[in-house]
Amino acid sequence: MVTSAQLRAFFEPRSFALVGASDKSTFSRLLYRNLVAAGHEPSTFLVNPRSDRVHGRRTRPSCVAIGRPVDLAFVMVPATAVADAVRDAAAAGARGVAVLSSGFAETGEEGRRRQRELVLLSEELGVVLLGPNVLGFVDVAAGIPAMALAGPPGSAGNVALISQSGASCGAMKDFAALAGVGLSHVITVGNEAMVTVGHLLDHLVDDERTRAFAVFMEAIREPEVFAAAARRAAAAGKAIVVLKAGRSELAAKAATAHTGALVGDDRVVDAVLARLGVIRVDTIEDMLVTAGVAAHTGPLASPGIGVVSISGGACDLVADLAQAAGAVLPELSGATAERVAAVMPSYGHVQNPLDITGAAVIDPGIWETAVSAVGGDPDVGVVVAVNSLPWREEDRPFYGQKYVDAIGAGMAGAGVPAIYLTQVTQPMGAYTREVLDAGGVAHAVPGLRLGIDALARVAGWSRSRATAADFTPPAVPVRDVRPVPYSEADARRLLESAGIPVVPARHVHSGGEAAEAARAFGGPVAMKIVSADIAHKSDLGCVRLGVPAERAAAVYEEVMAAGRAPAAGGARLDGVLVSPMREGGLELLVGVTRDADWGLVLAVALGGVLVEVLDDVALTPLPVSPARARAMLESLRGAPLLRGVRGGSPAGVGRLAEVIAAVGTLAAELEPHLESLEINPLRVDGPRIEALDALVVWRTADGRATEGRQ
């Protein structure tokens, strides 16, 4: 277990050893140059037993030969020599080792073995291991550019950038500079053999300089550590913005269940991140701009965005972008409208987004009043001023400085966070920053889409983070069950015991009983064989639908004969279930399946037998409350169907949410033994809700799966 105290020691080194330093190594040259430029030359030592001088400096044959303690060692030697280098660094007092070398888990089984042994060695020596396959880190405010990357950031900001990819990290920190996103830290984690993204998040949540996180990852290692850190960040009001690679073909969790086909690795990640209050994005640009906005605004008190612009066209574009992003542009209150109208020309129209017209060119004071007034509206959580900014040195002096000054003054009086937004993506360089600083503008975003999308994400995060921070899974009693194949009758009793409504049925053992049951139901019936040994009954002719009462006795014999056929493999038979046919209504799938990293995950989907074709699914990790189940239903594309369309009866959504939550609770109670639990379809016809078919897949002691179907 990596502790915060160990990470503090790792990231606060006073002396450095470059093990494997070489004039031929780009890593070595960049790392040495960065440390020297930051004033660390006297405490930076070069280790190379085969060369007396490297980078124009004397070398030592080992870390121990340096003759003084070393805090942090950078290892740049072949993979087979890394373990000896770590031993040498530890003997010299190193508290941390950053392994830049490759040739570990990324190379195959031999590399994975070597990596496991390296972790065990590091733990034995009490050394924190970053990597392998890292470029190092930068603590900007502390002036520690301990990274083999050109042009490390020099001006401290409030966003910590963490990347599993070293090569991509260079592009990320460069774009951050172009977009005006200030970085507090840049950390590469590589293979995450010991120190994971979760450890770093947990450590930096307590860093006062860091107000948001931008994280690039290819996988979430040590999920429990990551989840705990995410909850701490949510509680602290520090957004985590994740760009996770790997949106690919869905991976089935259980070949026998529709739920498995719907719940893929990436969809589970989406659901888990949403539950943890983590913002997920798809591009480097969105990751950094969103993190920059979140660091500036913190959690918004209201999701409403107030927009002020001198361009009517920009207002139209913002309105379209906001609708597409799900951003809220609230109507301005009467008091706000009066304040704005007092300075607007007669031909202006007061609304949100607000076009203050060309009159503001003559009277910049309109900017100040409008920004201040819109920012003071009770439904506005953040105010945005859309205007141009210079980015070329030849634009000096900026003709629009007086407008920037007026906007800055309005932002100061707004009472809510404020963002300066340009219409197009442009560099936010040193000169641009001078103009903004002179006007008292703290944060700007280049480009309407980047800005509006980022604000929409931050508004959503602001609403969800409290739930994520306060989430504590309730204690659930474990059911005493035997994980053996269930008959249909057993599966029905399981559902009914959890308060899950099932279609009425009679368990019969003769043709006469079948006929009596069909007459009692008063219409066509469904007849299914009862056997714990037959999972796919339809394939064997053991399911008949739409059977009239006069045919029920004969069909009973036919179904039983199909169950005794050689194709059934000598299955044990226990009669037939007879239930009334159902027509109309809406069919849903409600299922729970097990994810290898995150445990049981619940899926709600529309479509019944067409569920995989329609692919309209919402996911969440357990547990699931009725309120969360209702939110899942409302998030489906087909949610309007639940409200009744073209004469259809509206569903009892409240009761449906309770049933879905009950399925989640039942799954949680079965957790030690459950692989998946699926109801498909769960039929909804107005207030009537019934499970028509169910499948249980158990985890057995030997790892095999056994099924039980209603």
Automatic annotation (TrEMBL):
It comes from the Bacteria. The keyword Ligase applies. Keywords: ATP-binding, Ligase, Nucleotide-binding. InterPro entries: ATP-grasp, ATP_grasp_subdomain_1, CoA-bd, NAD(P)-bd_dom_sf, Succ_CoA_lig_flav_dom, Succinyl-CoA_synth-like. One of its GO terms (molecular function) is ligase activity. Residues 492-528 form the ATP-grasp domain. SUPFAM superfamilies: Glutathione synthetase ATP-binding domain-like (SSF56059), NAD(P)-binding Rossmann-fold domains (SSF51735), Succinyl-CoA synthetase domains (SSF52210). Pfam families: ATP-grasp_5, CoA_binding_2, Succ_CoA_lig. This is Acetate--CoA ligase family protein. It comes from Streptosporangium fragile.
